[in-house]
Amino acid sequence: MGSPARTWRPGVAAWLRLGALLATGGVLVGLPLALLVIDPPAPVGPASPVSVWSAVTDPHFRGLLGTSLRLASWVTIVTLVVGVPYGLWLAWTRSRAATPLVVVHLLPLCLPPYVTALAWSSILGRQGLAARLGGESVGVWTSGWYYGEIGVVLALAVALTPIVTLFTAGFARRMDASRVEAGLLHRGWGATVLRVVLPMAAPGIGAGALLVFVLVLGEVAVPQLLRVRVYASVVFGRLADLSFQPGEALALALPMVLVSGVVAAGLYLVDAGGRQSRGVRAPASGLRLPGGGFALAMGVVLLSSAAALAPMAELVFTALTGPGGGAEGLRASGGALSNSLGYGAGTATILTVGAAILAAQWSERSRVGGLVALPLLLGLVLPAGVYALALVATWNRPSTQWLYRSDAIVILALCGRYAYVALRVVKLGRDQSPDAWFEAAHLTGVGPLRRWWTIDLPLQLDILVLTWLTTFVMAIRDLETTVLFYPPGGESLPLRTMTLEANAPPGLTAAAATLQIFVTLATLVVAAVLWHRTTRRVHP
Amino acid sequence: MTQSETRAASIAVTDLTVRFGGRVALDRVSLDLGPGERVSILGPSGSGKSTLLRCLAGLEHPAQGEIRIGDRLATQGRRHLLAPRHRSMAMVFQDLGLWPHLSIGQTLNFCARPRAASGATRSDAVSAMVERLELSGRERSRPGELSGGEQQRLALGRALIAEPAVLLLDEPFTALDLLLRRSLIEMLNALQRELGFTLIQVTHDPTEALRIAERIVLLEKGRIVWDGPAQELAGVSEGFGAQLVQALHWWRAESPDNNEVSA
Amino acid sequence: MIGVLGFALVAAAVCDCRCGRSRSEVVVYTSVDQVFSEPVLKGFEHKTGIRVRVVYDTEETKSTGILNRLLAERKSPQADVFWSGDPVRSQVLVRRGLVRRYISAAARDIPAQFRAADGAWVGFSARGRVLLVNSKKVSPAEQPRSIRDLIDSRWRGRTAIANPAFGTTTMHMAALFSRWGSRRAAAFMAALHSNGVKIATSNGEVKRLVVSGEVAWGLTDTDDAAVAVKSGAPVRVVYPDQDGMGTLMMPTTAVIIKGGPNPSHAKRLIDYLVSHEVEQRLAFAPCAQVPLRQSVKRPAHVPDPSSLRKMSVDYGRVARVMEQLQPYLRDWSARRAGAKPPVISPRAASAR
Fold first, then answer.
1. Which of A62, C112, C125, C312 meets the CB 3.0–4.6 Å disulfide criterion with C282?
2. What is the DSSP string of A188-233?
3. In terms of domains, do C64 and C168 share one?
4. What is the pTM of this model?
């Protein structure tokens, strides 16, 4: 018996999903941004075109913009210097130590940058470890330069270097080993890396650098902790202090929104470029660095591990032994911990399910899909405060109080901010899986549901769990997105860490940060094990 | 059993055109195949031969043209009227695409389901196929634990256990050594004689094409440049076909003494 | 789409349980440091069984902007009570008509200067603006006695204040402008620059500078000073201008938000906050706040409120001056040439 002659239109399903993706981006990011402009949440100050222009051209603001751009440039440079060698080493190493080292390296990225800055201040601050070891004058000296632009660069570089590492490693791993080996037959390692490897990995490295740059521009909490006046904090100052000027804040935020838009477009183009090289799947993991290069890479790896781990260790030590800390201090932050876990689990579950459904099509038709996902990408790179204000403008109205007054508003905000991350991780998993797996299943004649259950789901299970873990970590690390509207009594761990920082005994603040570190570390370890398994299965 | 009636199907391709962005991969290709015919599509890399195969399977969307399988219209322009799984086609992929999480038994069982609904008939079919593939005793092994030849046989078995009307081969043997290639081709030919499916093979290797097919289609830059019985390939006197024939002669006449080439 | 659906489900579920709770809860936004306010609010929970849900603010990260959040939420207020760490933030809400008047019987014995007669706001447990002196660097004999000592050439380059563009220092400057008028106050501000006063990023930083001896003394808040004293650092606290205009006191203040979800519980919370119990608790806390009632028990290092000469200020006027003053203070702290203060006439608060 032949099969019934059914009309099959894969196009419809695909377009439906792309439409859903576009709608998701529209509701989560596009609509709030539009409403922010059309119907701002508070009486807008003098925001005539003239005042917008004068605000942007005011030498005071220009000076601050200069500071912000300088900080962003320095952080980007440092992350490149550390992240690129680290990424190349990671792409090619077969060392067993790689997994634990990478977990340590990723830890600061998965924590709020504020916690990293706090951790470093527990070493370099006036009463920090340096002062305890070397005397008060050492503490005065270290805190003198740490509480300033150098400190901001240090803390944010530690926090954001893993982005460059991941992008570099991703591109280097996709590189055909024979291309690198062909270079090695003619030239040494140095020349091959400079002339062959780096140009081929340039789109990845560039994308990572762009992302770092824009994240530094939008960062508010770290410069404030370290008492550096930056453009972003002035924008939010206009929303927060007594010179409350939402109109002016909006005007001042415009350059940052524009920069975010440019970065989003840049990332999209890099993604498009990456697609073209997708055919090559031979992993270049058999490459072995020569002695000098290996020593250099190991130096970078160990240095960055120390930069991530040492301050965290000191912070944990403070939490356990410092005034206000200990078991009592940890217990005091229990409520915030359970809030964080709730937000994280809710966000991760929704994003994983959504991405599993929507990302398949996104992956197969990336050109359109990339454009369709652009609003979600914008949601990720927008300054958090601007996005938060847009959400207030959208949801704080009498008809939507059921949402705005509940924890769901936090989850909604986090979904808007991190949906793109979920799509990327699922797509990454898809790219690691040969098309033939799914096409062969398609041809078997087995029904779609059974096919999904027997082939698609098991093959993607690891990556879905990984997506869940990634978005979970992103959600529990978030600080600035939800600070404007988290429900009363629903403060998350990062928020509590920040609100406690004013005048609380150091042990109590450190305890809140420590809980965050432990939850993040545990999640990372599980994710690392899973990732290890997934990649090993694909490239046995 | 009524399988022999459906086992082979005729295929009619009319004016099939496929574009990737601005590039034309297939340019108004028309092709008729009788039931049970064994055809090799021969062409250099980039000639569009894999694309043609994937269009037949319903995995690629053409810009225009028609594909009929038996008496049913399967593809018309951009629209697939028959889903891949309703075309009664099976395919052996170039990189095999074996499912890493399923054992030999599980893989075959999964693919046998559409033909054999009851568990008993299915497990009979699976053990018969395992025996046929000379994989007895390895039912519980997963692809990662198999040798290259065993993986090839599993891929072939996976394709055939559903008793397809058409078997599509996308250069699955190119990476194998000569001896392994020979044993697999012999196994394939025996299975084809026994089961009678229509066989379409895509390759760039004329010797392999001649061992499998009774009819050869030459494809160059997305167009069919020659189409005829395998034994007439030697008579092609122009274009890509002629070069191919010359190269074939060269191999047969000179390769044993030519150290440069064999090195 | 399924994501959105799941979303709606979660939202509905969460909303359900929140609404279910709302009958026995009260929502507070506070800019009083969490470490001090949390125990007080827990005390209210214990006493009444009413659950308190809190949004905290910090001094260092103004982007949290409780005040901003209150203004942004004006269309549908979420908070019942705003407990401000200073008297002027409440005034901003009063002026914008966002508060609901309530005269608490429990606040009857609070001096009239520290509460609105019409019940718009009520003050209690105050911080003061004090001089923190490093006793190793300054002998008791030469100890500064007035904030005008900041511009005394004797102390050139040896004193510090926090940046007047932010925090309580803004309020202090506004109080001076309000009291002295813009001419005299602006001359004072210019003299701060010319006398080499260090501009620290916050009051906490002033404390650190004094403790480490980098400056001889500085102008800061009582809570920062108390932390320094408690840490055993060689410092003394001086309440300035006891023989002149008096020390600027900044009561914490509380207002009820108009249209908040739990109005009756809001009143109970206000009654509790202005009680003797809370003033006493905050006097004994590390912030060592000064109770406004003499009858409240206090530790030895907290001064007697009745013996203390307090600067007489109209907090409503100070709040207005503060908003006018903001651009000037920004220019001043950026040391921009030609920074011009707004015209403000001198006036002491009406004798209350």
1. C125
2. -HHHHIIIIIHHHHHHHHHHHHHHHHHHHHH--HHHHHTT---HHH
3. no
4. 0.79
